[in-house]
Structure to design on (845 residues):
């Protein structure tokens, strides 16, 4: 016990004993039932369908439950669902809910709540949109059964309803889900997950509090990411928002917080030197760094220019700038999907790993590039985009391109990247971002790899050969078929440079050693985590 | 006097109107899109557009401005785009930490800086004077966040005497409240102490040359009485002015201090709102700060009459 805690515990125990209340051990036990966690960002809103930021999703998994949940093998397992039946033609799915499911307001979870929640989720989600396009009827049969009739088979149903990519299909009470459309924020935070959201203690930008929901009935299977029994070992989880990493590091060392989701690499050696702190990889699925080029305007409307840039870029440079020289933290990619996951392939990916500046210069000369300025948007308030932007500016200059470096913030990049105007009229040439590895595991969840023109993500690439493989993957019934489709997709995406991945990288998490049960995963799962 | 106060209070109305117009226009022309932030990085352009429409951000300038002004006239600062909470609620949640930080900083700064300045003037040219001036230069030169990190490192991490971060409401006890504010107040107050100490020294030096001080000495008045009763009272007007001007310095410094010490105050609320383009919150907070600043100036003007009976309104 440290000096200040000792003094405080003494004072607290004394006052409590004087008041005839809890004994000193009981006081200490109460403190051990609260987990203080520093998330990656501020929980500025709390509607996982309306706002699809990862931090909202991460808080939402505590409060709202899902029909299925991904386990650590990325396989969807039943969660709220007890069982499902699929008709012989694959077009009708009938689901039955588990017994004993309750919302935090005490109401039972009924099939009509599920129907309303799915209807609210579908318009915002890529897989939901696919389902919506073939939806014939989604209806509640009775309180625990709902049926979904489709106009075509959809083999990835469980994946759609159980994926952890945002927006997840969270189940809300019908009175909330049907009152607010997908683009309007809810104002009641009632779920059926293992924790209740304590709204009156929520101070956006400072704190969010979750209290254990005693009526939650976890599944019997052991927890595995979003699947299995979500057993809360603490009564209360407090999210403490700390914008400054140095403060979070000091607070963790001082025992003022228990668990920090994303310590920056620079501070990891300091944390490792503290014997009370454990540091480990946060998410084995990691992240993919990227910059996107605007396919609508010169110079990047010319595939040869895009190829020249991809040939010249060195992923090693980007990764060193992002996470340092520790090669356990990053990997050079030859494909667009998350390394280590079933669909990762390097088919046709030689250009991504080339890192050949001379060849790149030659390709640029041959491309007909006429010195058009490249408006390079770089958000300075995000360390990941800032580091990548600096490397890109240097890369393009060495390549012989005319770079207009626009140092700005993420809010401005978010607005400007949506503009389709030419770069000289408020538009843009390229911007930097990154993709969570958990989202880049198949072509439907991973909108960055899609190339369907106006319907594609910012940059609006049009590559029919990429798009042709998406339905092939959806229709595949075996992993071999899926891999074959993804191999062809990867080749086409590289040849046409849909975007430029800058490497695969991992991040850290850190916690006090008196905390146990923390697992590596794409979300900081609080179930199974206890304090001693 | 009463008529003067009423006149000054009424004069805040056009000032606030100009501030409102200025803030709204500035935010309107500033780049950035809250809809893009809400939608998340993976959202499609179509999603972003739908959210923008649902928030009414696609409406023309005049429509949005008049709606906002109408709400303000009815005492409604609006609702945060992000949190869906009323701006007044968000300000109420955050005002106590900022107010506490500023009060503790003010008390700390005045109680240290004024005696420092007085003593430096009294001991002009000595080692004490030079030490005070060296401290003042240091206070001006070292950024608040550097002072903050150093304090946190030694007082919290090395010596384990005070917490690194956070805020405990006053209602939970005086010491828990104060222990979270000591380090931030020292960090925030360092510039302020330097400023007040310098101005106190300079003004005191001037006053100490006056005939009435010589007369007081000739009459055998003690040194302490001369310094603190005769000289300081006559030097008070510029010192009070600097303290008043320094409130703006404190508001600016609070933004950094609250971030370094993770204090959930108005400074952090403002920065978060700016980064997210949460227009109603930015507008509400800026209006509040402007109003406070106008009131502080009024209070300073009224304080002049207390220290200098020749001043009449």
């Amino acid at each position: 016990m440290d000096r200040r805690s000792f003094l405080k515990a003494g004072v607290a125990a004394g006052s409590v004993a004087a008041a005839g209340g809890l004994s000193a051990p009981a006081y200490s036990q109460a403190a051990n039932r609260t987990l203080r966690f520093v998330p990656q960002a501020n929980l500025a809103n709390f509607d996982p369908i309306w706002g699809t930021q990862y931090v909202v999703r991460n808080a939402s998994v505590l409060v709202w439950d899902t029909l299925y949940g991904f386990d650590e093998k990325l396989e969807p397992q039943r969660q709220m669902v007890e069982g499902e039946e699929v008709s012989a033609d694959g077009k009708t799915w009938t689901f039955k809910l588990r017994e004993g499911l309750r919302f935090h307001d005490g109401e039972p979870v009924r099939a009509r709540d599920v129907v309303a929640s799915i209807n609210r989720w579908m318009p915002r989600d890529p897989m939901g949109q696919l389902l919506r396009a073939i939806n014939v009827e989604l209806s509640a049969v009775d309180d625990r059964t709902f049926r979904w009739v489709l106009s075509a088979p959809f083999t990835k149903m469980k994946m759609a309803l159980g994926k952890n990519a945002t927006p997840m299909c969270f189940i809300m009470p019908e009175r909330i889900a049907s009152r607010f459309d997908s683009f309007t924020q809810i104002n009641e935070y009632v779920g059926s997950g293992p924790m209740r959201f304590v709204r009156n203690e929520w101070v956006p930008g400072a704190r969010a509090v979750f209290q254990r929901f005693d009526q939650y009935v976890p599944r019997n299977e052991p927890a595995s990411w979003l699947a299995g029994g979500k057993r809360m070992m603490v009564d209360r989880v407090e999210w403490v928002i700390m914008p400054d990493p140095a403060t979070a590091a000091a607070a963790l060392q001082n025992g003022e917080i228990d668990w920090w989701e994303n310590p920056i690499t620079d501070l990891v050696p300091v944390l490792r030197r503290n014997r009370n702190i454990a540091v480990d990889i946060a998410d084995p699925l990691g992240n993919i760094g990227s910059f996107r080029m605007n396919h609508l305007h010169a110079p990047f409307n010319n595939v040869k220019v895009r190829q020249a840039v991809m040939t010249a870029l060195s992923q090693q440079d980007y990764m060193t700038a992002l996470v340092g020289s520790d090669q356990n933290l990053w990997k050079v990619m030859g494909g667009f999907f998350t390394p280590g996951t079933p669909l990762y392939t390097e088919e046709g990916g030689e250009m991504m790993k080339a890192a050949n500046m001379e060849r790149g210069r030659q390709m640029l000369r041959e491309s007909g590039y006429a010195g058009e300025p490249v408006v390079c948007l770089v958000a300075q308030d995000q360390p990941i985009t800032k580091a990548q932007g600096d490397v890109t500016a240097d890369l393009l200059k060495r390549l012989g391109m005319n770079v207009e470096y626009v140092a700005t913030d993420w809010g401005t990049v978010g607005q400007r990247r949506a503009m389709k105007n030419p770069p000289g009229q408020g538009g843009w040439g390229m911007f930097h971002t990154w993709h969570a590895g958990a989202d880049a595991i198949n072509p439907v969840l991973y909108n960055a790899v899609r190339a369907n023109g106006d319907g594609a993500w910012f940059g609006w690439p049009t590559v029919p050969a990429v798009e042709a493989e998406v339905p092939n993957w959806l229709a595949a019934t075996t992993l071999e078929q899926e891999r074959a489709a993804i191999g062809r997709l990867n080749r086409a995406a590289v040849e046409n440079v849909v975007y430029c991945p800058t490497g695969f990288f991992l991040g850290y998490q850190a916690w006090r050693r008196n905390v146990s049960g923390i697992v590596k995963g794409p979300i900081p799962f609080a179930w199974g985590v206890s304090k001693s | 006097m009463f008529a003067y106060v009423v006149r000054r209070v009424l004069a805040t109305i056009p000032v606030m109107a100009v501030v409102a117009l200025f803030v709204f226009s500035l935010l309107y022309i500033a780049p950035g899109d809250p809809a893009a932030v809400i939608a998340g990085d993976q959202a499609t352009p179509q999603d972003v557009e739908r959210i923008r429409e649902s928030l009414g951000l696609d409406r023309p300038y005049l429509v949005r401005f008049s709606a906002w002004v109408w709400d303000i006239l009815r005492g409604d600062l609006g609702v945060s785009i992000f949190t869906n909470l009323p701006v007044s609620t968000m300000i109420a949640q955050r005002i106590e930490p900022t107010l506490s930080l500023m009060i503790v900083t003010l008390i700390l700064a005045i109680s240290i800086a004024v005696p420092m300045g007085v003593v430096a003037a009294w001991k002009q040219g000595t080692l004490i004077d030079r030490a005070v001036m060296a401290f003042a230069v240091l206070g001006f030169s070292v950024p608040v966040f550097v002072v903050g990190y150093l304090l946190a490192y030694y007082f919290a991490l090395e010596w384990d005497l005070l917490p690194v971060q956070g805020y405990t409401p006053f209602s939970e006890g005086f010491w828990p409240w104060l222990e979270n504010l000591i380090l931030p107040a020292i960090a925030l107050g360092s510039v302020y102490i330097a400023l007040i100490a310098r101005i106190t020294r300079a003004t005191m030096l001037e006053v100490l040359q006056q005939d009435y001080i010589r007369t007081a000495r000739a009459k055998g008045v003690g040194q302490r009485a001369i310094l603190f009763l005769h000289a300081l009272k006559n030097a008070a007007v510029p010192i009070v002015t600097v303290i008043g001007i320094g409130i703006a310095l404190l508001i600016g410094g609070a933004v950094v201090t609250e971030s370094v010490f993770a204090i959930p105050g108005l400074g952090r609320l403002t920065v978060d709102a700016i980064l997210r383009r949460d227009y109603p919150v930015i507008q509400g907070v800026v209006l509040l700060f402007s109003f406070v600043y106008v009131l502080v100036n009024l209070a300073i003007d009224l304080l002049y009459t207390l220290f200098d009976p020749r001043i009449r309104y």
Observations:
- Confidence is low (pLDDT under 50) at residues 10-22 of chain A.
- DSSP finds 16 helices and 21 strands in chain A.
- Chain A has three domains: 3-46+195-283+509-519, 63-177, 287-505.
